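User: quick one, sequence for these tokens?
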């Protein structure tokens, strides 16, 4: 959340996948520009995690956030832009230029004005309960990792390897050893 709380605007340039904790980092930035074919999502929501920043709900609204967190799906930069999760998706060869254009536009504003605008918007999120939502999300993340399903997933990942455990988790079949 240091990125979110920084008085300076933070622009994320996402060239590769922003998955799990990587999505938390990107979503804490003020503006996000992504490679249109890069992906973003929180697959641990399927078993073994809850995004502690809780930024999905604040960026997408209830229904779309639930869709992303109920499925753990990854979406492309193009899909993320279309659903309003990020500001812009561009082809990889245009990413640097798109971010440079945005930075040039923003840097023309006085620093104190930028800090005030960022504080104003962030305060609205705080008033909507961001801090208490993040506290609950952090607790739920711990619960998810230590639930019978989370423990079974961790054991399976240790036994069969992480990629195999993820493939089994994403198949929809119960994880061996869990009570799904």
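Assistant:
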């Amino acid at each position: 959340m240091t990125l979110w709380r920084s008085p300076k605007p933070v622009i994320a340039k996402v060239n590769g996948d922003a998955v799990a904790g990587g999505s938390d980092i990107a979503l804490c930035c003020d503006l996000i520009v992504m490679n249109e074919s890069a992906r973003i999502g929180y697959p641990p929501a399927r078993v073994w995690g809850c995004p502690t920043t809780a930024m999905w709900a604040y960026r997408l609204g209830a229904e779309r956030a639930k869709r992303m967190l109920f499925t753990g799906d990854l979406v492309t930069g193009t899909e993320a832009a279309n659903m309003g999760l990020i500001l812009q998706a561009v082809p990889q060869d245009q990413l640097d230029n798109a971010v440079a254009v945005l930075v040039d536009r923003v840097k023309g504003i006085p620093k104190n004005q930028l800090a005030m605008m960022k504080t104003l918007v962030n305060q609205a999120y705080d008033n909507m309960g961001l801090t208490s939502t993040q506290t609950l999300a952090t607790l739920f993340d711990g619960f998810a990792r230590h639930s019978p399903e989370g423990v079974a997933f961790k054991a399976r990942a240790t036994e069969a390897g992480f990629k195999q455990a993820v493939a089994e988790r994403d198949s929809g079949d119960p994880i061996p050893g869990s009570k799904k």
